[in-house]
Amino acid sequence: MKTILSIYLQFKILTFIIYGLIGLTFSSCSKTNNLESNSHLFLFEHILSELEITSAQKTQFSSILNNFKEKENHIQKTIKSHRENLYKEILSEHPDVNVVSDLNRYIADEQYYVECLAAQQLMELKKICNKTQLAQLKQILENRAITDL
What we know:
Elements: H1 2-27, H2 35-50, H3 55-91, H4 97-128, H5 131-148
Helix pairs in contact: 1-3, 1-4, 2-3, 2-4, 3-4
């Protein structure tokens, strides 16, 4: 029975290591671990370039974008810290499966917050747009949704 439990725990640890390494592979494509952020920033900058905006709107858009960048940078630092702790735990002599699981959950939660911030930013941008710009924004987002599939 002890052998089965030992094999099971080794399997769980290996599973977490594999999932952690998969996350590392995708996140290490960017030195700052913010591929999602870069994607959001690219979208927002694309929106700014496509919409015919007034100088007053540009000021408001820039303020919203800077606010997003500031909050997002803080979240990315938190994610980086959690990832560092995750890998330290995984590579420790006796990794605690519960700690690994908790750290993975913390990372996922922080990534969720980035998505929420991006949605919030789009809603704020939408408030600034006139009817023509809203139609353009809708088209940009619909095209984005199609290309993201």
